[in-house]
Design goal:
By secondary structure, this protein is of the alpha+beta class. The protein is 56% helix and 15% strand.
Length: 381
């Protein structure tokens, strides 16, 4: 009678263990159904798309954690029943709990990494294209590769620590190894951190024309983490390490706007009518602005006399081009027009002339010679 009651008790406990596991299975199914219904309702709503992505990412991990928890609970109930499992299984209680901890941590780590990856992907597809800056387009793909590695490494350390293994030696070893690696790749790290500064600052964009102090110049083709690539005026690709970009003085001719000033200088003879010189130069500059596609419409040119030169009265004409490429054609056209107009109006554009005033010749006529070494005249008798 006692043995029969004991058997009935064992059977009830086994049924109870199975019922516990079955309850966790039902709970997992209910959670999946609820998440699927919410996701289906929110997936077409832009304001709730982030919530939908999070729910979809955690649906499978939550289900897995519930199933593992159900297995652990049922197994622990079975272990509490005497004479059901072989004697060796009674010592697996702590081991099963450790396995459950490790699996739960790893599944949670996977869920976090997957959720972040989906959120970054959603941001790149829906938000990054609408922003004016290119920082997110450059930064987020790199974070998308780096963050999962960091999250998995942190999850592995937490899992190891959860089963009673000290991670202090591991952290110390990683610190020493990281220091050695940092020393070995110091130039690369220098370029990387300089690239971080260049990218996040946002002062350089693709298509900008830049010039490094004492270095190359050209149009920016790509701003990367290690280097910046520019296309020179001779159509050569120049790759500049970002460490040099961060240390050099960089002139961006497209910032704050692509428009650039065009200054044409010249000089006219002292005998010229300066009022007419100003009038004709401004008329030609206005004509260039009206007719040239490279000039900024609606702007007024400037004119001024700048200096009394050796043989000329120097002047300048100032106007604006739409970008740096337009300055060359605009300057050339203005020079041609001013030269042609001055020729028609009889205004002389002098070239350097030096007048030599000789002294009166002596009574005993000798040969007057110029000494180039002393820049003087001397008499050769």
């Amino acid at each position: 009678m006692f043995e029969e009651g004991l058997t009935d008790s064992i059977l009830l406990r086994l049924i109870g263990a199975f019922s516990v596991f079955l309850g966790f299975v039902v709970a997992a199914l209910i959670v999946r159904i609820i998440i699927s219904l919410i996701h289906r309702r929110l997936k077409n709503q832009d304001t709730s798309s982030v919530t939908s992505i999070i729910l979809q990412s955690v649906k499978t991990p939550i289900t897995a954690i519930l199933l593992i928890s159900g297995l652990l609970s049922a197994y622990l109930l079975v272990l509490s029943i005497e004479n059901v499992l072989p004697s060796g299984f009674s010592d697996t209680r702590d081991l099963s709990i450790k396995i459950w901890k490790v699996m739960t941590i790893l599944i949670t780590t996977f869920a976090i990494a997957k959720t972040i990856d989906h959120l970054i992907d959603w941001y790149l597809l829906n938000i990054a294209e609408k922003t004016e800056t290119k920082i997110d387009d450059t930064l987020l793909p790199t974070l998308r590769r780096v963050l999962p590695i960091t999250i998995y490494a942190a999850g592995a350390l937490v899992a190891i620590d959860s089963i009673g293994i000290s991670i202090s030696p591991i952290l110390a070893g990683l610190g020493i190894g990281g220091l050695a690696v940092a020393l070995a790749v110091q130039p690369t790290l220098s370029n990387f951190f300089a690239g971080t500064y260049v990218v996040t600052e946002g002062e350089l964009k693709e298509g900008d024309f830049i010039e490094l102090e004492g270095g190359p110049s050209g149009y920016v083709e790509e701003v990367g983490w290690r280097s910046t690539k520019i296309r020179s005026r001779f159509n050569n690709l120049v790759i500049i390490p970002n460490s040099r970009m961060a240390e050099s003085i960089v002139t961006n001719y497209f910032s704050p706007t692509p428009a650039m000033n065009v200054i044409v200088t010249g000089g006219v003879a002292y005998e010229s009518n300066l009022v007419d010189v100003e009038k004709y130069a401004l008329e030609e500059a206005r004509t260039v602005i009206e007719e040239s596609e490279k000039a900024i419409k609606g702007t007024e040119p400037s004119f001024g006399f700048s200096n009394f030169g050796d043989s000329n009265v120097d002047f300048y004409v100032f106007l604006q081009a739409i970008d740096r490429a337009g300055t060359f054609g605009l300057r050339s056209e203005l020079i041609k027009r001013i030269h042609d107009r001055f020729n028609r109006e009889g205004i002389e554009i002098n070239y350097p002339v030096r007048k030599l005033i000789l002294p009166e010749p002596a009574n005993d006529i000798g040969e007057i010679m110029f000494d180039p070494d002393n820049d003087t005249l001397k008499e050769n008798t």
